[in-house]
Amino acid sequence: MTVDDGEGAVVRIASNGLSRPFAEHLAALDAWRSHWPAFESDSTLDVAPDDVARVLSDLVERLTDNFPFFHPAYAGQMLKPPHRVALLAHALTQTINPNNHANDGGPATSKMEIESVAALAAMFRFDPHLGHLTAGGTVANLEALWVGRQLRPGAGIAYSGQAHYTHGRMAEVLGIRGVPVATDRQGQMDLDALEPVVATGEIGTVVATAGTTSFGAVDPIPEILALCRRHGVRLHVDAAYGGFYRLLADTDEHLDPAAAAAFRAIAACDSVVVDPHKHGLQPYGCGSVLYRDPEVARVYRHDSPYTYFTQAALHLGEISLECSRAGAAAAALWATLRVFPLLADTGLGPVQAKCRAAALRWADLIDGSERLATVMRPALDILCFYPVTSSMTASSISAASERVFQGGMADPANPVYLAKMGVSADILGDAGIEWDEPSVTVLRSCLMKPEHLAEVPRLHERVLALATGT
Ligand SMILES: *Cc1c(COP(=O)(O)O)cnc(C)c1O
Questions:
Q1: Closest listed residue to residue 212, CA positions, set 239, 192, 185, 235
Q2: CA-nearest residue, atom 2 of ligand 1
Q3: DSSP letter at 240?
Q4: In ligand 1, which atom is closest to the CA atom of 141?
Q5: How distant is the alpha carbon of residue 24 from its chain centre?
Q6: Quick one: pLDDT band at residue 355, thresholds 50, 70, 90?
Q7: Sign of the four-CA dihedral 292, 298, 302, 303
Q8: Which of the listed residues 77, 143, 166, 273 should we mutate to test ligand 1's pocket, taking the one with most ligand atoms within 8 A of CB?
Q9: What's the helix, strand, coil split of the chain in %, to 5?
Q10: Where are the alpha helices (DSSP H) in 74-220?
Q11: Closest Cα to atom 6 of ligand 1
């Protein structure tokens, strides 16, 4: 992978792409530090330079025990390298280590967080909004469900059978009932199954998913919203993975009309979660939760005696379940959004568009081949498929998937890294599979990198060869 080093030369990311700008700007931060009286760092903290060198070289050695997440040959899990702007901003900020729990812990990065969260809210057309960054999507969802519980005491939550597994757990954490709702063949929440669940009057919040972790399926949010309104139930949207596809939802150019409409309908939902550390080019430790009604701030009221000193206005820490949070995460997102604004035609939009195009290109290639079949048309950039076998028994397909999965990782000169997933007849019931086992192993790919678009033909040829044993 190559990047422009800022002076017109194209360099590998591992060399000057990071180190030169880092050293330059670190020196500027050192100049800021030098404004305070000099002092000796304490001898108890001394480490011999040789020991530093040794431990870091051991670290690098240990770090090579990883899959090549940076490479477009890697299409397995939801993993991709952060943008180098994010990395640089994160590392520079971490030398100061601000804490965005309160303004006193990180005045500069708290402002960056507020600005970045406003940009995320604008993307979803939340105006006004309340929100903040979190360590990730799980705690962001927990927080939205907790707010829902406080506003609808005693009521449970409903989420689809394809929702992220943490929603069921979080219902347990919150001590409320969690009701999984059936999905259709497209992995979307089934409205006919949701209606009677909501009609019991025992549900306070419905969770819709915009981009499921398994298939990237997008629930029919406009219809779910209408149902929730009729019953006076809150609607929370888990867009941890798919949220940035909102950028492409103002036209039907990239997404199917139903998916685009679902993303647009988030504007009228009560809360939404999106993970900048999934599709927002950020290092891990960056999720977010946004509320359409700023009044939910009253739910968070607490009176910790020791955290707030300098401001009367609401602090980030006063509207958050978590206490300490890295200001560096806010700085990294803020810097990234400066160079990749949340727009359709420039900034992050074209990055998402290439991921989406990659999924469609590969789906077309697979649908046009006789040896592979897609599980469903991808709604976003997650594509699931399986080898077609002569017997078409679930067990033979699972064995063939396993061979492709293992074979893809075995040749470093022609690698394909995929993930595996079990799928049952509720999704693949019409695919002509003979169910000698209750579920079939399929291959799952997350085409999260714009480089995947150019890589797809090679990935396809390689998978085809592995599937046919040639
Ligand atoms: C990844 C994901 C989560 C969990 O987010 P983390 O950042 O991993 O905690 C929740 N919901 C969906 C739909 C996800 O894809």
A1: 239
A2: 240
A3: T
A4: 10
A5: 31
A6: very high
A7: positive
A8: 166
A9: 45, 15, 40
A10: 84-94, 107-123, 137-151, 166-174, 191-199
A11: 137
Residues 6+ apart with CB under 8 A from 144: 205, 236, 271, 273, 289, 291
What's at 14, amino acid-wise?
A
| Distance, CA of 120 to CA of 424 (rounded, Å) | 36
DSSP state letter for 237 = E
Q: Strand runs (DSSP E) across 226-307, as ranges?
A: 234-238, 271-273, 287-291
Residue for token pair 């560096």: 328
Quickly list H helices, 236-285: 257-265, 276-279
Question: Would the CB of 160 count as within 6 Å of ligand 1?
Answer: no
Give 23-77 as a DSSP string. HHHHHHHHHHHTTSPP-PPPGGG---HHHHHHHHHHHHHHHTSS--TTSTTB-SS
In this predicted model, what pLDDT tens digit does every residue of 83-123 receive, in sequence order?
A: 999 999 999 999 999 999 988 999 999 999 999 999 999 99
Output the residue whose Cα is nearest ligand 1's atom 5.
137
State the pairing for strand pair 10-12/287-291: unpaired
Q: In angstroms, rounded to a whole number, what is the distance separating the alpha carbons of residues 158 and 190?
A: 12
Q: How far apart are CA 28 and CA 173, in angstroms?
A: 46
d(CA 225, CA 42): 59
Q: Per residue in 196-231, pLDDT tens? A: 999 999 999 999 999 999 999 999 999 999 999 999
How is residue 449 written in tokens?
Answer: 């990198």
CA distance 12 to 173: 45
pLDDT category of residue 163 using cuts at 50, 70 and 90 = very high
Whether the Cβ atoms of residue 103 and residue 315 lie closer than 8 Å to each other: yes
* pTM score: 0.94
Tokens 């997350």 sit on residue:
446
pLDDT band of 283, cuts 50, 70, 90: very high
In the three-class reduction of DSSP (H, G, I as helix; E, B as strand; rest coil), residue 108 is classed as helix
